[in-house]
Amino acid sequence: MGFSQPRWQFATILGISAVVAPAAADEQAWQRSHDAGWTAYQGGRPDEAELHLRAAATECRAFDPQDPRVATTLDHLAWAFSVQGKFDEAEPLAKWALAAREKRLGSGHHEVAESLNTLACLYHAQARPSEAEPLFRRCLAIEEEVSGREHRDIAAILDNLATVCHLQDKYAEAEGLYKRAITIREQAPKTAELELAPSLHNLATLYLDQGRYADAELLFKRSLAIREKVLGRTHPDVATSLESVIKLLTAQGKHAEAKRIEARVVDIWTTLAQAETAKEQPHPSREP
């Protein structure tokens, strides 16, 4: 069975003027726009991603609503909106993509898990952890069935689920989930070492919130060491790790040590800001 709505109705979610008789699908145009948009998103350029993915969504009007490219496009556009804080625009797209995938593929498919993750992350970003939690749980159950409990991708879902449990003060459950994510990531190839740092950092933050300072310190230092090794000492993620160490030291009353690290953090952010400003400066013209 097809969708009950007209074939073009999803376009109205985007504020795109729909037409009753869409033109023949230009599959190459869709592919170009979609790929350019998703590449821009992955490259940290969400405004550019939105532009291209909106164009891809326009091309999608000529596809059957059950065409998998429709759900993919709207799911990816939801990510582009979400990272820009455009949650009201992102949510209906994520819900549409989830419903379309469930209808086409059934409730236990990998693509359904992807859509559940999108919507759950959207809720998480809006500080709606109680709504995100059941979606992450469904996503985890599907991926464990599809990929196996020890698959590398499972760790990211465990981290996400642990974080929303943490936000709801479900400390024991969050700790178990973080630890399981860490175990999976410790078994991953050395080339994936950087993925371990956020899991260590998140568990350390949980321990900090519980006043378990010695446990938190070990994990913060381990996470920081990985980031410094892989990213360099002046990367933003290193500054973020150092800021968490400052919180830990302050909670322990070690104010002088916290001050020293705070000076390093200021240096990192100042250096990064100066580098960004230099990029934006126009290059002087040269005489031929």
Could you describe the 3D structure shown?
This protein has 288 residues and is mainly α. It has helices at residues 10-13, 27-42, 46-60, 68-83, 87-105, 110-125, 129-147, 152-167, 171-186, 196-209, 213-231, 236-251, 255-280. Helix 9 (171-186) runs antiparallel to helix 10 (196-209). The protein is globular and about 65 Å long. Residues 1-23 have low confidence and may be disordered.
Shape: globular
* Low-confidence residue ranges: 1-23
The overall average pLDDT, rounded, is 89
Task: Output the radius of gyration.
Answer: 22 Å
Oligomer: single chain
Assess the beta-strand content as a share of residues. Answer: under 5%
Helix segment tally:
13
**Series of secondary-structure elements, N-terminal to C-terminal:** HHHHHHHHHHHHH
Helix content: over 70%
Largest sheet: none
Count the E strands: 0
Structural class: mainly alpha
Distance between the termini: 67 Å
Defining traits:
mainly alpha, disordered N terminus, 288 residues
Condensed summary:
The chain has 288 residues and is mainly α. It has helices at residues 10-13, 27-42, 46-60, 68-83, 87-105, 110-125, 129-147, 152-167, 171-186, 196-209, 213-231, 236-251, 255-280.
